[in-house]
Write a structure and sequence with these properties.
Layout: H1 3-7, H2 22-31, E1 36-39, H3 46-57, E2 61-65, H4 72-76, E3 77-82, E4 85-90, H5 92-99, E5 102-106, H6 113-116, H7 120-123, E6 128-131, E7 136-139, E8 145-150, H8 163-166, E9 170-173, H9 179-190, H10 194-208, H11 221-232, H12 237-246, H13 253-267
Parallel strand pairs: 1-8, 1-9, 2-5, 5-8
Antiparallel strand pairs: 3-4, 6-7
Helix pairs in contact: 9-10, 9-11, 10-11, 10-13, 11-12, 12-13
This protein binds adenosine-5'-diphosphate and magnesium ion.
């Protein structure tokens, strides 16, 4: 493995608690080098799952956090000026294609559609990436795979993937794990006892029922982990929950009262 690939290799096994048969399904998709889309709300385990799969498959992982200012050059690469003139620098997608990494485009809808189309020739039988400015055609390494994440909750007409992009991917649905699994995750990730983890998960369930009734998103597993992390530092659970489960979620005073009341039911 090259020095560069080594840098992107995950050395320690990430803790990932599987929720269904997603590991086997991803294994099969990877063995066909099929592009995969992970769909689900924020903070439910998509990124952790990719890290785990990259470790399990022994592939380097290159993650790109997509945003609307991102251009095709940010993915593919560009000429840079240095003292000797111009020098080509590969972007993360090109690097991943050359080294046979898993390239993870996180929150891909955030990128503009004219940026997203550069992945097309890598996602079909061609498995090529044209570097137009450089005049080079990169043939993807046989181990290269492309994975994207996508939050269906944020879908709007302005921000959605084109069908021509969507239909290049197999998709796995992710959601917050069921209560016992999520309790286990929160306890393992933070070191809080099972009782505390159970309470945090129950608070999350109350908040998730308010989605669409004043809340855009429920409390994520990520926020439950944050709450647990503060509690093990000795922060009073009421303060920890207010800081991690209530305030990040909403600015609406009534909704905050409702969530605070739920927290009080379990930790008051
Ligand atoms: N199945 C899981 N196994 C282990 N940890 C999980 C799992 N699901 C969620 N987590 C925890 O939740 C956090 C947020 O998950 P992440 O993968 O970053 O969410 P996403 O990428 O879906 O926004 C992780 O850092 C981890 O602590
Ligand atoms: Mg993520």
């Amino acid at each position: 493995m090259s020095f560069q690939a080594e840098q992107y290799t995950i050395k320690r096994e990430p803790f990932y608690r599987s929720v269904a048969n997603e590991v086997e399904l991803f294994d099969a998709a990877y063995s066909a080098r099929m592009p995969v889309m992970l769909k689900g709300p924020t903070g439910c385990g998509k990124s952790r799952f990719v890290e785990y799969m990259a470790y399990r498959l022994g592939r380097p992982l290159i993650t790109v956090a997509c945003n609307e200012d991102m251009t095709a050059s940010d993915l593919v690469g560009r000429f840079l000026l240095d003292k000797d003139g111009t020098k080509w620098q590969d972007g993360p997608l090109t690097m991943a294609a050359r080294m046979g990494a898993i390239c993870y485009l996180d929150e891909v809808v955030e990128a503009r559609q004219d940026t997203t189309v550069v992945i097309h020739p890598l996602t079909d039988h061609r498995r090529q990436l044209p570097l137009d400015k450089k005049g080079e055609m990169v043939e993807a390494h046989p181990d290269f795979q492309i994975v994207i994440s996508y939050n269906p909750g944020y879908q709007s007409l302005m921000k959605d993937l084109k069908q021509s992009t969507k239909q290049r991917f197999a998709a796995l649905d992710f959601d917050y794990p069921e209560a016992a699994t999520e309790t286990d995750i929160v306890a393992r990730e933070t070191g809080v006892d099972t009782k505390t983890a159970e309470k945090l998960v129950q608070i999350a369930h109350r908040a998730r029922n308010l989605k669409g009734h004043g809340l855009d998103e429920g409390i994520s597993t990520r926020l439950l982990v944050y709450a647990g992390q503060l509690i093990v530092k000795g922060v009073n659970p009421l303060a920890a929950c207010s800081m991690t489960l209530v305030r990040p979620l909403t600015d609406d005073p009534d909704m905050r009262d409702t969530l605070d009341a739920a927290v009080n039911t379990f930790f008051g």
